[in-house]
Specification:
This protein is of the alpha/beta class. The protein is about 35% helix and about 15% strand. The strands form 4 sheets. Strands 4-5-9-10-11-13-14-15 form an 8-stranded mixed β-sheet. Strand 16 and strand 17 form a beta hairpin. Helix 11 runs parallel beside helix 14 (about 360-375) and helix 14 (about 360-375) runs parallel beside helix 15 (about 390-400). The longest helix has 18 residues, at about 360-375. The chain is globular and about 55 Å long. The mean pLDDT is about 95. The chain binds iron/sulfur cluster.
């Protein structure tokens, strides 16, 4: 694993009672270089106390904010899914009032701590939604909450809880896939960075080997880390896709704290490509620092020097408002005109679309630069928008060579390795299908 030094260490009582979870906790503790007696065991009541003592009830703070008074690595809670049904969850909330009191990210984290995080989330493409995002319907897998990186725009760096019942998780994943035969590609894990604690955790290896047994299903490992050596000798049989978010050098070094740099991610990707993995990149979040054009050009040139990606996507940063933007990031990184543009846009519109706060025309200008540079360096590369509006897709379609209804992207459930946009179609406008 990467060298990390968790602050507080706990294990839930229900995970402690499972021999497989206990063994995984011990392996992770050896990886941390810490003695097992640092781990305190928590029943439900003690967990409520630990939440308050460690301020885990106040996790909804982005890490760049000045009131994020924390540095170092997160607290760790070794845990396991309790696979509760709806009645059991209700009873758990009644027994533990703190679960009903929390909101936002802290609420989701508390549910995970009590052993009932969602092991997947379901996004549904909805043409009637007010602020429509043009992404396909999909399920995304999770087995952890929290992250050892400290990206300034994120809030996951203070507490990590890891579900250690890997075999049960795989059983539930299989059930989900059986219920959704159209989902050929499934991503893991946007609630954490899945590579940092490997191979000690063991989930990535388990997923790689599990999906290697399947005829037509693929798993995506999603990361900003370069911790890939444990993957290189695994029998993946082409059924694992490595996906990195790739940001420009200054963003990776100044804003995405403790992540691998742009070049380190590319070196890791090259190792994986040489080991036969499909590699993809998401330019996300694109942060319009002052020198964004030159940095994007440099990053794209570096990318194709190192690897031949299967596909690429791009998505701009979002934030709540201009005040938050100014608080999250060092102002010296930005052109002051960008703050002025955002302030004027906020005053004029009130930022009604929380997923696309930067004005449409500015986003389109950035995407055009990226698309032209990708085409200049690699004319056949497949490039898409991520989490963008239908209007943006319509405007960019000719430049991308893909349309809003026929496109491949990094994490689409139909984007099997090598797929092209013209091979993707949908019968209901929400679920994508792949035609060989
Ligand atoms: S790597 Fe991802 S999950 Fe981790 S801090 Fe950065 S944005 Fe958050």
């Amino acid at each position: 694993m990467k060298r990390v030094n968790p602050r507080q260490l706990y294990m839930t009582q229900w995970a402690y009672e499972d021999p497989a979870c206990l063994e995984r906790m011990r392996r992770l503790m050896r990886g941390f270089g810490l003695p097992e007696d640092r781990v305190r065991i928590l029943d439900e009541d003690a967990l409520a106390q630990a939440i308050v003592e460690n301020n885990w009830h106040d996790l909804d703070i982005r890490q760049g904010r000045s009131d994020f008074a924390f540095s170092g690595d997160p607290d760790v809670v070794f845990n396991s899914f309790r696979w509760m049904d709806a009645d059991e969850m209700r009873a758990c909330v009644e027994r533990n009032p703190i679960l009903g009191e929390l909101r936002g990210y802290s609420r989701g984290a508390a549910r995970a701590l009590y052993g009932f995080p969602d092991f997947y989330h379901h996004e549904v493409r909805d043409a009637s939604a007010k602020h429509r995002v043009n992404c396909w319907t999909l399920h995304d897998l999770h087995s952890a909450r929290g992250c050892f990186h400290k990206c300034q725009y994120c809030r996951r760096g203070r507490m990590t809880t890891l579900m250690l019942d890997i075999e049960d998780f795989l059983t539930h994943v299989d059930r989900l896939l059986e219920q959704n035969p159209w989902q050929k590609v499934t991503r893991y894990d946007v609630e954490s960075d899945c590579l940092v604690l490997e191979p000690e955790y063991g989930m990535c290896r388990a997923l790689v080997e599990h999906f290697a047994q399947k005829d037509d299903r693929y798993i995506i490992l999603f990361s900003k880390s370069d911790n890939v050596d444990f993957l290189l000798d695994l029998e993946h049989k082409g059924h694992t896709i490595m996906l990195w978010t790739l940001s420009t050098p200054t963003v990776s070094e100044r804003i995405e704290v403790d992540t691998a740099t742009t070049e380190e991610r590319l070196i890791a990707a090259r190792k994986c490509q040489e080991a036969g993995y499909t590699v993809r990149f998401k330019f996300k979040p694109i942060i319009p620092i002052a020198d964004w054009r030159a940095e994007a050009t440099k990053m794209i040139e570096m990318l194709f020097d190192y690897v031949q990606p299967d596909n690429l996507s791009m998505e701009m940063l979002f934030f709540n408002n201009t005040a938050e933007l100014e608080e999250l990031f060092s102002k010296d990184l930005f052109d002051p005109d960008f703050f002025r543009l955002m302030a004027a846009h906020e005053a004029a519109t009130g930022l009604p679309d929380g997923a696309h706060v930067i004005p449409h025309d500015f986003r389109a200008m950035v995407y055009r630069h990226y698309a032209k540079e990708v085409q200049r360096v690699s004319p056949d590369a497949r490039l898409s928008l991520c989490a963008e509006t239908k209007a943006m897709w319509t405007e960019m379609a000719s430049l991308l060579g893909q349309t809003a209804e026929h496109f491949v992207c990094n994490c689409s459930p139909a984007s099997v390795p090598g797929a092209r946009g013209d091979q993707i179609y949908s019968e209901d406008g929400a679920i994508p299908l792949f035609r060989a």
